[in-house]
Known about the structure:
CATH architecture of the largest domain: 6 Propeller
Structural class: alpha+beta
Number of strands: 36
Shape: elongated
CATH superfamily of the largest domain: TolB, C-terminal domain
CATH topology of the largest domain: Neuraminidase
Amino acid sequence: MATSQKLTEHFLTCTICTEVFDKPCTLACNHTFCRKCVITYTQTRPEAISAKSLLCPFCRKMTKVSAPERPVEEWADDFKPSFVIQGLLDSFGPESKDTINCSFCKEEGETTPATSWCSVCDDALCELCMWVHKLIPLFRHRGAFDLSPYMKVKVRKKVMCKVHKDENVKYICKDCKTAVCQTCCTNHHRKCDLVVEIESEITAMKTELKENKEDLLKKHDEMKTHVGKQDTINVLDLKATPVLQDAINVLDLKATPVLQDTINVLDLKATPVLQDTINALDLKATPVLQGNINVLDLKATPVLQGNINVLDLKATPALQGTINTRVAGYADISNPSDMTVLVVNGTDTVVVTDYSNNSVKSFYTRNKKQSHSRLSVGGRPYGITKLKDNQVAVTVPGASHIVTVQVNPDLVLLSTIITSKRYYSITSLTPSTLAAGSDSPPCVDILDMAGHVLRSIFPGQPSRYILKYPFFLCTTRTGNILVSDWGSKCVVCLTPEGDVVFTYNTTGDTEMEYPHGITSTSTGDILVTDINLHRVIHLTESGQFVRNILTSQDGVQSPRGVCVGGRGRMYVCTWDAVRVFTLK
Length: 584
């Protein structure tokens, strides 16, 4: 017992987190750490990242990785624990503990069911041994609890491979849809593209199971309601049919002649006039008011009706105005990175993330006077997305959190969501889920509103991941995710499940140099800015190049964020202002 405790403390404990090894890896210097600990430490050392090596926190020696093109989180996957460490873990680690039988009695050659657990000794005890154990002052008031059916020591059950009986199942091959061990991966799945650890899929599996359960319960309730209605209908049919039949007969006898005359009169006299009107509408669609029916001119799509973002993307854009994002009383410099437009109580409100001033700003017109609001968010904000009619979510990558803000149109902080990664870009997928882009590692994560990662998307193959700096996102009308990645110089369309719909990455005149802001219109068209080429590009819904809709000749210099607002307007962030264009 004492030997086990000493081994755990001195040889099986990670010096970084001071806990028992979790997925240990032994570096070239023979020092062993938890895989996630050495990765986290390496990420804080720029010299290690540039050298494509894992850095030992103890002796500072570099360990070269075999596949530096992979994300940093996967650099330690090739380094296994030494045979000595692995042997000690198998013999004395947490998974080796027996919580069924008393440890003391077992040493005496007896098998007695355990009823309690001592967390200080790390042993299971029977009722008699526990009574003797409590006589020791050190253990009298702490460290022990009952092993009731509702409180068991957390010991992970090992699932063994059906082919290789002595190896644990640790991976899932998504291509073959099967769980496999390390040997299976090496022998039978080395050519498969998607072989991942089981633990990385647990969150997504739980979410899918929860959704399936909710769907089944919903269908069960619907069936129950349907059966109840069916019973009610049957009862009503039996009792009410004779009365209903009489009423129908009376109506048929009395009303039919009058209805027939009316139909004949309408058919004979009104048909020529109706036909002419229908033809006129179909061909010209002119805005003629027929009674109280509003007939819209289908050629006038540049004019926004209500809050529908409809632009005539074939029209020539005209600069309507400029919003100066500098606010009096604060730093003279302004660096807006992204924005969105909301209509709050009938007022068009432009909400901007100002990276240089650690703030979110709103600009609007009230009582024919230009007004603004400023909200500090405890760090440099970057991405922004609309949640509701008067709420937005903003990323603060340096602080690793997301804030939600209410737009009145003055700004009010609602909540701060702590995240496990630094996210730059963000877009709302559903009322309860977000998509956010990170560069460490380069991926797009699906999050719930508490900041928990439901799914991580790494498009492409492990050796050739597409994303590098996914710093701008938006959601299409079909629910897909558009990613503007200036590291890969491309636009990627992803499904929320992680499938690649298309990738726009061309050469020549249509090539992008540093794509930034991106948005999708209600017609499915895509607008994306290029900060270095000073232009806004128009793509079709399927990712085909149409034209440069704005260039430096239109007054666009270093465009960042872009969005579509009311009344056929397009808003573009430049280095110190928001420029408003109309398309008519």
